Amino acid sequence: MATTMLHKHRVSVLFSFGRSLYRRINVSQGEFGLQQKCSAYSRPINTLSASEAVAEIKNMPDESRPMPAKKPISKAMKAYLLQAKNYDEFMKKQNTEFQIGRRHLANIMSMDADTMTQEDIDQAIEFLFPSGLYEPRARPMMKSPELIFPPKKAAEFDESGRPYHSLFYTMNPNFYGLLQEAVTEYVNLNKEEDNMIRKRISFNSDMKIILSGSDWLSQEKLSNLLIEQIDDAQYEQFKNVMLRLAEHPLSNKVKDFIMKYRYSLVNEAALAEIPKPSYEKDGRAYVTFKGARRKNAYADVTVHMPGTGKFLINDCDIEYFQDIQSREQITFPLIFTALLGKVDVTATAIQGGTTGQSGAVRFGLAMALRSFVDDKMVERMRLAGLLQVDWRTRERKKPGQPGARRKPTWKAR
Amino acid sequence: MIGKSVFRALNGRQEFVKRCSKIVIRASSTVPQMSLPLSSENSNPLPFFRSKQNSPSLHGSNNSGQFYTIDPSIKKQLFLYGGIPKTYDDLCKTFKETCMMIREPALEIMDYMKSTNFNNAATRYCLYGKIGTGKSMTMAHLLHYGFENNFVIVHVPWAPYWYKFPKEYSDCPTKEGMVDLPLDAVAWLIHFKNQNSHLLADPKLSVCQDWEWSKREITKKGAPLAEIVEMGINRVKHSTNCIEALLQELKQLSDLKRCKTLVVIDGFNIFFSDKTKIKTAAFEKIPPKRVTITSPFVDITKQDWSNGAVIVSVDDLAFFRKDERNTHYPRGLLGAEGFEHLDPFIPIETKNYSEKEFHYCIEYFLDRRWIINPHAASEEGRKELAFLSNCNPFNLLKVTAPL
């Protein structure tokens, strides 16, 4: 039995090979030869590299050499890995079912399955399964399983229990990863700022991100995005960090990163379509906006462009509205766009009362005036609130109370 | 003894203090001040929106839109007991002058009156128009014209006051089923006396017949007309009878060419309505025709006399709120009965301000510092005001009040 210490590779080998065999190992520059002393074998000397030899030794099946026993996977980890696997399988199955369902639906509705969009599916389902339920989420729906089933995180650690994410032990790796990313961006922006100061490049307001028109994702939405439960303190922290980043004079460079966590307040789809004016026989341009609403009133407003400032509401002049507030509501869009004496306005208003009708006419008028005004003015009108439907309605009276907010007279005793 | 230099210094300091106080007053206002003189008397020549003619008889279409000033003494005589609408009267107090715009309706009626043959039956003019367009103001203008031309003025400032806010009512002792408004009648006689004080002294105005008030009180034929007026004022019991007598006398006197009468009644349509707030002793609500004061004034608007003119206005505001007829046309407001009574008449419409009149009015307001907001004076501001008020005179006043 010979023992050799291979210091270079810190391998100590203690073995006995076969029946009475002798080894003579030569050490020279990381090589050693395996030599069988027994004359029965007349194999040539093999020269292996150290790593290959180690591998060979490791793989040698030998009961007499006690191998380091494999760590058994704990039950918890087993269950966790099983759960992750099951989820993946489940989603796969749901997906195939959805795809089959899509094809069936396309068949039923005689649509082309390949070009069918989610919108088409929604319309088809609404048609086939009409529902009187108020809550949209309670109505029948057919959507891709990713949208319906809450997302679960993939396996967060491997078989040996080593987590994949470096921040796993914070319990909210995605969240803290996001914060770290924000901080990293901030540090980079600081470096850039320093560079700019050194090179004497001037700053201007274009380099800073404009946050108006959007707002931070709500706590719930953020939790869904990060697939982690975010509590109030964490949400506050998130907002503070992101705001700090956004306040940086060069924050426009990280606009994509910041905007991922903000949602737009503007219904851009509706505002993008400004109608083109039609033309009367005498060449006057006009635009009609129908269905302007305020409280219970509806108004249709027609604006003729080369005009003299006439105003007709239900075939009466502005004296139809007797109180000054209603008249000012109607005047506001005209003054704001500086078109007061330059257009003729004809409006019809039904239902509602004075305030409702005047508010409806104001909205209709503003929407109609968009066609006669440039984009900058349209943006200013939007900011002024002229292009937004006033959703306020009369509050419901509650039982046990005389009015919406009024409570019965409070008595001390 | 104050030396010249000290005197000069003192004066100088007074001047300085005066100027300082003006500046201080100006600085304390939040709006940049405009450098217009506060009083128009010191400025020569008159600004374009003011008329040199302060006498209505000399007003013509070239004065249209301009403001003319009413002398305070004339105002006291004519309008002490009503005639200028209260809102406008408050404005006159604010402006420290009584100025009125010369407008087309008034000029038209004055034109007709200048070319009327007074031998014919008294012409009846009916002023109508939307609320706030200047019916009462036109009447005030015409009152001034009548006053200047020595008409005997029979003026009811606002007839509905009698029926909506009667001072006191009691069952008529002589006529059955009728109700008296004794105090209101007395008030009207005082008003009449005040307006016509200069004419009542004229000996030509003497009573044409005997009037017996009671067994002991008789006004004999040939007595001055003023006696009837005095009788009515002093003896409350006979006040309505005195009014009746007075108006009948005036009709006769006008026929006899001893005087010419101008009847001016605001809110004439109330006489033909159904409701009043007046009740009989039995708490029964009665219509105006059962009130004794109604008949003399309805009578004098008939066409059975000459040498005079009758100017009447019809207004939706004359009715009670609930009974408003939402029209401003005479036929709608007078009803069938009233229209037949007044027909034939010359209808004169009062309208919202024309562009020129609006412009002049804004200039007047600026002059009087009613509008001090500089944006209101600008082109866009005026457009906005015109749009908001629809050039209605009353609305314009209200809209510019906070400016």
UniProtKB/TrEMBL annotation, chain A:
This is 28S ribosomal protein S9, mitochondrial. Gene3D superfamilies: 3.30.230.10. GO terms for biological process: translation. Belongs to the universal ribosomal protein uS9 family. One of its GO terms (cellular component) is mitochondrial small ribosomal subunit. Pfam families: Ribosomal_S9. Residues 394-413 are annotated as: Disordered. Keywords: Ribonucleoprotein, Ribosomal protein. One of its GO terms (molecular function) is RNA binding.
